[in-house]
Predict the 3D structure of the following.
Amino acid sequence: MTLKTMTLTAIVALSSAAAVAEEVRVYNWSDYIDEDLLEKFETETGIDLIYDVFDSNELLETKMLAGGSGYDVVVPTGSFLARQIQAGAFQKLDASKLSNAGNMWDVIEDRTARYDPGNLYSVNYMWGTTGIGANTAKVEEALGADAPIDSLELVFNPENMEKLANCGVYFLDAPDEMIPAALKYIGEDPNSMDPDVVAKAEPVLMAIRPYVKKFHSSEYINALANGDICVAFGWSGDILQARDRADEADNGVEIVFNAPKEGALMWFDQMAIPVDAPNPEGAHKFLNFIMEAENMAAASNYVYYANGNKASQEFLEEDVIGDPAIYPSEETLKNLYIKEAYPPKVQRKATRMWTKIKSGT
Ligand code: N2P
């Protein structure tokens, strides 16, 4: 063997060693983690972490139902998780690999059991509410000092929306959240599975459609923070992140979040392992890492969402655990509603309605 071929052999050996280095692929919501935690996981475990993001349950669901996503950990919202469990998209968690399970909060586990009975397939990552982000100065300029910034009136009353259209309103591109909110506004059950009730959301949404600048589920953070829009109907922590980005930029923009006083959706995002995950062992390591009290607290402190980890609470910053917009009081909790998965027929109706609303015709 010549020196040249020996070197080549060595190179091949090296690169194949690199190719078999352990990898974990995680698919989580955008703006939903402190990126230092990703590096910490790699340093502690020696595993390469591939971390991709999405901003739509529908998109994630398409991947989960098709199979072969290549992900080891994904994070659907409870109502979507329930349907995907039934479709056989996930594997049962191996409790023997989750030594931090005792850190979880029974109050939240009781609630997530509605979507995943016995919490056999999933662990709560974060939970929150869907509500109104407002640029107070701009909204008051458009509607006066008594603008209903904590009410569904702000975004579903066409008279208000017409006046807000100029400063810019974004809505989530999330039919399973916007339809229930519209139903709540007209006094219907937001969790109704009755197609005739669901249909009542359409005229409500159509009436304000001309005044919605964009349906998008992540761009509103920067749009609010930069002062490009004055209202977003979006997720609690995202709007609080917008508030902070504006503070950091010191641009004079002041953002507040309010859960609508008529009632707000409370949702739970659950970490789960796809049935065909390439590395379920590594997936459990990632879950157990996130379930460590200090890691979970670091994530919540960064993204302003509450989590389902009781032990993390002593490590939460006061502006997180002490903020009722993040950890609601008993009083507010009573005013929150939940959403279950629509049966297929109603889901198809909701999807068609949403396409129509977004196109505005
Ligand atoms: C994070 C959004 C997570 C909330 N940007 C959606 N359930």
